[in-house]
Design goal:
Layout (H helix, E strand, L loop, with lengths): L2 H4 L3 H11 L3 E2 H6 L5 H13 L3 E6 L2 E6 L5 H11 L7 H24 L11
Antiparallel strand pairs: 1-3, 2-3
């Protein structure tokens, strides 16, 4: 399941907001909504399929938690749309910075190794 598809439903977004506060059982999540526990379970299954939530069984109950790292594609899209992300990837800019520093250092070292140039006077 695609993260964006999973986020398309308002009930699933509300479930994620609740899980951002901490782990919860299906019965706890159903209490916050006017839908049945089986319906909440179906929504959690969709969210789990998208990797947005993880469920763990504790005895006879299932506890769900938010998986924040699964929201990375959404964060990337929002950064791109807001214009805050440079069009050139950060690692490329880092490489350019390193090359400029290396070139500057090499040029400075080269000037020290070479004898100073003397101006020629034209005879005449």
């Amino acid at each position: 399941m695609d993260v964006f598809t999973a986020l398309g439903d308002p009930v699933r977004r509300a479930l994620l907001r609740r899980l951002a506060e901490g782990p919860a059982r299906v019965v706890d999540l159903a209490a916050d909504h006017d839908i049945s526990r089986p319906a909440v379970s179906r929504h959690l299954k969709v969210l789990g399929g998208a990797g947005l939530v993880a469920g763990a069984t504790h005895g006879r109950e299932r506890h769900y938690t938010l998986v924040p790292s699964a929201l990375e594609p959404v964060a990337v899209l929002l950064e791109e749309l807001s214009g805050r992300t440079p069009r050139i990837p950060e690692h490329v800019l880092d490489g350019l910075d390193l090359e400029v520093r290396r070139t500057s250092r090499d040029r400075a070292a080269g000037r020290q190794d070479r004898p100073a140039r003397t101006e020629r006077k034209d005879a005449g």
